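During the second year of the project, the team shifted from modelling isolated chains to modelling whole assemblies. The rationale, set out in the original proposal, was that interfaces cannot be judged from single-chain predictions alone. As a representative example for this report, we include one of the complexes processed in the last quarter. Its constituent sequences, exactly as entered into the pipeline, are reproduced here:
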Amino acid sequence: DAGVIQSPRHEVTEMGQEVTLRCKPISGHNSLFWYRQTMMRGLELLIYFNNNVPIDDSGMPEDRFSAKMPNASFSTLKIQPSEPRDSAVYFCASSFGLAVSYEQYFGPGTRLTVT
Amino acid sequence: SQQGEEDPQALSIQEGENATMNCSYKTSINNLQWYRQNSGRGLVHLILIRSNEREKHSGRLRVTLDTSKKSSSLLITASRAADTASYFCATDGAGRRALTFGSGTRLQVQP
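Output from the structure prediction step:
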C-alpha cells in the first residue's frame, strides 16, 4: 500500500482565495483525521470521520473551514476564504478504527502558505 | 490546553547515549501512544501502552506508564543519529474519542 496520500504537497496562495486540500486514506481504514501543525499551537485535531461520517468537528477553527468525505477513499479540507493565519502544515491520517487503541497512519502533509 | 505535555522540549545527546523523554497528562486515559516525526514528514507510530500496562518494550524503545502520576516516559537506548526527530505522546481521554497530541520533544543525536 502506498500509505496515506495527500495533495498538493505545497500550496502558496493569496489571502481571500479558496484552498482545497486532498487526502486518500489507506485502503481498508474506516477512520480519517485532519490535523493542523504550527510552531505556535503544535498539532491540532481539526475534524475526524468514521465510515465517511463526521464524528467531531469541534477543532475546526471557524466557518471558513469545511471538510467532506464523499467516499471511503477520498476526503477534502477546504478553506474559503483563506487568511495568512491559516498558514500551517495540514496532515491527514487514517486508522483501522476510531478507538484510540488503533495507531494512526499519517500522510506527508500539505504545507500551506497564505500571503 | 494540551492533554499531553512532553518534557524536555528539546534534548541533545551524543550517539550511543540513552535518551529519555517524559509525558504528563491531565485526565484519565485508556491508552497512550508515542509517535515520531522527522523534519518535514508526517508522524509515525512507535508504540502503544494500555492503561493497565506499566512497561512495554519494542526494540531499542522502552515505554513506562504511571497512571497514578499521570505520566509516561519513552526511553531510547543506544541512540543513533537517525533517531534525531521530534517525539510526541498522544492520549485519549478528556472526553474525546480521538487522540490528543502533546507539544513534543525535539531530540538531536550528535554523531
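The two ends of chain A are 36 Å apart (CA to CA). Chain A is about 0% helix and 55% strand.
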